[in-house]
Design a protein that fits this description.
seven-stranded antiparallel beta sheet, five-stranded antiparallel beta sheet
């Protein structure tokens, strides 16, 4: 089982995340077993938002029957953020794993700095928890990755150990650009 140690944690101590496994999603409503902290099911929606000009991004929202909408960082939904069709600024993944030995539903984010080419990338792990207003994803840990990335999808895969999504369309390199190419998006136009 894969073990990822992330330091420092938001709580000041070390959080250990074991074996995150991606939650497979298709476009539409996905019924996910063992999603809620009590082991209950949830409906995790995945929708494609067309940005025009042939590009777009994924939008995610979750609802637990009998409980309500699950809070995401920044609101009731969360989305990937493409810079271009093949160059992601922010990548979002959901996974099941263990945090400090306890089963957990995880929301993983990799967010690159602004601009084209390789930029500093922040990796965050959130855990679904019972909060004052209902269920929501609370930040467990975050860190700046040790090297810059040109694509947040690649950064998230490297940081989490999860495979790339089937929908990934960028180059298959360690930083998200083809070997030997100029490291700016404008060079690919």
């Amino acid at each position: 089982m894969q073990k990822i140690e992330l330091k420092p944690s938001v709580q000041g101590g070390q959080q250990v995340i074991f074996g995150p496994q991606p939650i497979p999603l298709h476009t539409g409503v996905n019924r996910i077993d063992r999603f809620a902290p009590d082991g209950g099911q949830a409906d995790l929606s995945s929708a494609w938002q067309d940005d025009g000009h042939g590009s777009g991004h994924d939008l995610f929202a979750a609802d637990v029957p009998g409980v309500g909408t699950v809070g995401m960082p920044g609101g009731n939904s969360i989305s990937d953020e493409p810079l271009h069709d093949y160059d992601m600024q922010r990548s979002v993944r959901f996974a099941l794993g263990r945090v400090d030995g306890k089963p957990a539903t995880l929301l993983l984010l990799a967010t690159r700095g602004a601009g084209e080419g390789a930029t500093t990338t922040t990796y965050q792990v959130f855990r679904l928890e019972q909060m004052a207003g209902g269920l929501g994803f609370a930040l467990v840990t975050q860190r700046t990755l040790p090297r810059p990335f040109c694509n947040a999808d690649i950064a998230l895969s490297v940081a989490s150990g999860l495979p790339l999504r089937i929908s990934y369309r960028g180059p298959l390199t360690q930083d998200g650009f083809a070997a030997g190419e100029n490291r700016t998006v404008s060079a690919l136009r």
